[in-house]
Structures are given as structure tokens and as C-alpha cells.
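Retry 2 of 3 after timeout on previous attempt. Resubmitting C-alpha cells to design endpoint.
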């Protein structure tokens, strides 16, 4: 009988501790209608041959098991700062939450091959957990090189907390 009471007491204590730990997290959770805007960049490529900067607006941050923003809108401009035949690229890696709780990512790239004329862009992501950016300058091509995608460092533009 004493063992049963001890086990029941431990179970009740564990439930109370869990409830106390969960209460502050729920109190700090952002309402789903909240909207936040910020600036990102400017980020330069190696050798300062390209530059990108812009704005980010997120709404509907959900602080569930894996926090994510319901919608994230990225806008900005990419500049080609070379007079030769190279192009400036801004790449985005958008990590999103799936219904199964996984965190895959998509890449989005914008190319500008016009020296002195910035190219504007806007795109939107859903269930966004993180957005990272990278700027590259390289020869004109339909897509960025593997060196551009995998070399260097990505800058965190947004991370859901």
C-alpha cells in the first residue's frame, strides 16, 4: 500500500511540474494575429561584386512544438556591382514545418545581370521556421553554381522562436 501511495505521489508531482513548466511557455506564446516586420541586409558577395537587402514581414507565429510563422513575406533588391558579364545572385533557404512535424527546406534565388540597375523581388512562404540568405557573384547562368549554393556562409534572416 505504501508503494502505491509513493508511486501515486510521484506521478502527481510529475504532472504538477509539467503543468508549471508549460504555463510560462503558453503565457509567452504570440497570438496568431500578430504581425512583425524587420529589415535584412545589406549582404555582400565575396569581393563585394553583388549586394542584396530588403524587408521581411511575418505573421501568425505559432509557438507549438516546432515554432513557425504562418506566413513570411520577403522582399528586396539585388544589385550587380560589376561591369563585366557576371551576375549578382541572392539565394534564400526557407525551412518550413510540414504537417508531420518535419523541417525540410526550399531554395529561392533571384539573379540580376544588369550593372547599376537593382532588381526587385518578393516571395511568400508558409509555415516558415527559418529563412537564410546568401549573396554570390558569378558568370551568367540559369541557376547558381554549386560553389555559390554550398560554399561560404548563410546569414539568418528569420528564425521562429
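Retry 2 succeeded. Sequence:
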Amino acid at each position: 500500500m505504501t508503494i502505491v501511495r509513493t508511486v501515486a505521489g510521484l506521478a502527481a508531482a510529475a504532472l504538477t511540474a509539467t503543468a508549471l513548466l508549460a504555463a510560462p511557455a503558453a503565457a509567452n506564446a504570440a497570438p496568431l494575429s500578430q504581425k512583425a516586420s524587420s529589415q535584412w541586409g545589406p549582404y555582400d558577395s565575396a569581393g563585394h561584386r553583388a549586394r542584396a537587402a530588403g524587408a521581411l514581414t511575418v505573421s501568425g507565429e505559432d509557438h507549438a512544438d516546432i515554432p513557425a510563422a504562418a506566413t513570411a513575406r520577403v522582399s528586396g533588391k539585388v544589385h550587380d556591382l560589376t561591369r563585366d558579364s557576371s551576375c549578382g545572385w541572392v539565394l534564400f533557404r526557407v525551412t518550413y514545418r510540414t504537417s508531420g512535424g518535419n523541417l525540410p527546406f526550399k531554395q529561392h534565388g533571384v539573379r540580376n545581370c544588369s550593372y547599376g540597375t537593382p532588381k526587385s523581388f518578393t516571395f511568400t512562404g508558409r509555415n516558415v521556421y527559418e529563412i537564410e540568405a546568401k549573396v554570390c557573384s558569378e558568370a551568367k547562368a540559369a541557376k547558381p553554381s554549386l560553389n555559390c549554393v554550398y560554399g561560404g556562409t548563410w546569414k539568418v534572416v528569420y528564425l521562429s522562436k
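Attempt log closed. The two ends are 46 Å apart (CA to CA).
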